[in-house]
Design brief:
It is globular, with a radius of gyration of 22 Å. The chain has 21 helices and no strands. Helix 2 runs antiparallel to helix 3. By secondary structure, the protein is an all-alpha fold. Helices cover about 65% and strands about 0% of the residues.
């Protein structure tokens, strides 16, 4: 397992290189140390790879793939945090790891107080971490798995976000994974071009696009998208929505060239209905709010896609609508997308199960079934999907309770503890209470708890359950 982890981390270090290029342009003082760090690590990795090339390569199986995924993410957070420490030496290691975890899990929880005074190289690097974490670190390294002689299927089904693991992605879909990343890059470039056409500088446009398509939540400036013209918000909303649609739906459109694929997808239909109903309620039920209609729509879009961008002060919203926004972030976007949360498919499945249970209670002799977001689903797959939904809810509720209790023990009030836990578990980042602007003032213990929440929300229950099973089995 160590040999495989070394090889994966070598690939991850290569993926970090583009994010460090702006340091040589904007922050030449720290660039020397970052370059030295990269060269030393590459020499170490190459030496280890060459030295272990004759050793048998560990091949993950369904029992150990979850543990491998967990180790990859933990190692990646540590490696991604070291350049930040070199760029800003006065940052504590807890803040460095918190920022790296927030970037790679696309949470967007911020510990930097004044972005306008932060080196431009670090600003870009944070957003680059969100970009490569958008579809998963392991999704990236799977592209080079065949070059290592590894079986990619065991890791792929664990790292796909949400219940999309049951859509039959396997060995034959490795080409689809490559196309997926090509489409992901093209989407970011398209977003950057439209932002640049709205008047942004090339650096700002490309940097912001990395966070938008990954539904990450990091910004270039302290005031976020309010720093730019309103036209930018329309562009950002379009790409947030596209990024929150499942990759299988995008693949269906790519193969069929038929836009009706998006309208026929049941999960996307649920998301559209939920978004439209919420927008109508917010616009019609809060007429005297100082928040503009555009900012209301943008905030609803940001929360349902778990991007977490804030274009208005949360204290300008009533507690009722703040609760609605947090509920939207808990539900999240579609399965197989870069967004977090419970996912629309799970909500739809729970509603169908509740409906079926109610009908069975009223009509005990009526034969009926439960719908799942799969075609021609077997009984085993239906049970698997139901167990996944129940397992996710168990981990979500149990993790939320433990996190809220631990944060309160560290001195946080109930509202701040609950909203911070929900923001990190759903990978949204936006919180309320004492944490509306930054997480920087939290104690070390609280930041550690929230980092665990970020990983729990990103990896969900399946990889973690497999990891603990592998540890207990050994």
């Amino acid at each position: 397992m160590i040999v495989l982890l070394i090889r994966l981390m070598a690939v991850f270090l290569v993926a970090l290189i583009p994010g460090l290029v702006p340091c040589g342009i904007y922050d030449q003082g720290s660039f020397f140390w970052i370059l030295s760090y990269g060269l030393v690590w590459m020499v170490v990795m190459v030496s280890l790879i060459v030295g272990t090339r004759h050793l048998p390569v560990f091949r993950p199986n369904p029992h150990t793939a979850g543990l491998m995924i967990l180790l990859v993410w933990l190692s990646a957070i540590v490696l991604a945090g070291i350049p930040m420490k070199l760029m800003v030496p006065n940052m504590s290691w807890v803040d460095v790891l918190f920022e790296a975890a927030s970037g790679l899990t696309t949470t967007g929880a911020e510990v930097l107080l004044n972005l306008d005074s932060i080196p431009r190289g670090l600003i870009f690097y944070r957003l680059w971490l969100q970009f490569i974490g958008g579809l998963g670190i392991v999704m990236f390294v799977l592209i080079v798995f065949p070059l290592m002689g590894l079986n990619h299927n065991a890791g792929l089904k664990f790292d796909l976000p949400g219940p999309a693991r049951l859509h039959g992605v396997g060995v034959r879909q490795l080409t689809l994974v490559r196309y997926l990343w090509v489409g992901y890059v093209l989407l970011a470039l398209s977003c950057a071009f439209l932002l640049w056409s709205c008047g942004l500088s090339l650096f700002d446009a490309f940097s912001e696009s990395l966070g938008v398509v990954s539904t990450g939540g990091f910004n270039v400036y302290k005031d976020g998208f309010n720093h730019y013209p309103n036209a930018v918000k329309y562009v950002v909303m379009c790409f947030m929505w596209i990024s929150s649609i499942g990759v299988m739906v995008h693949a269906g459109f790519w193969l069929s060239k038929d836009l009706r694929v998006y309208l026929r997808d049941k999960e996307h239909q649920w998301m559209m209905i939920l978004f439209l109903v919420t927008v109508l309620l917010v616009l019609g039920g809060d007429l005297f709010s100082p928040v503009s209609a555009l900012d209301k729509i943008f905030t609803v879009m940001s929360m349902i896609t778990t991007s977490g961008y804030s274009v208005s002060e949360l204290n300008q919203w009533s507690s009722v609508w703040l609760t609605v926004l947090l509920t939207l972030s808990a539900i999240g976007g579609c399965t197989g997308s870069t967004s977090g949360g419970m996912k629309q498919a799970r909500l739809r499945h729970l509603c169908h199960e509740l409906s079926a249970s109610l009908r069975a209670f009223l009509h005990p002799n009526l034969a009926m079934g439960v719908r799942v977001p799969m075609q021609q689903a077997s009984l085993a797959r239906v049970k698997s999907f139901s167990l996944m939904v129940q397992g996710y809810l168990l981990v979500f509720l149990g993790g939320s309770w433990c996190s809220v209790v631990l944060l309160q023990i560290s001195g946080m009030d109930l509202v701040s503890a609950f909203s911070a836990t929900l923001a990190c578990l759903t990978n949204t980042g936006s919180s309320m209470g004492l944490l509306t602007t930054s997480y920087a003032l939290l104690p070390t213990f609280s930041k550690t708890v929230l980092m665990i929440d970020m990983l729990l929300g990103r990896l969900e229950c399946i990889p973690l359950a497999a990891a603990f099973y592998a540890l207990l089995a050994d």
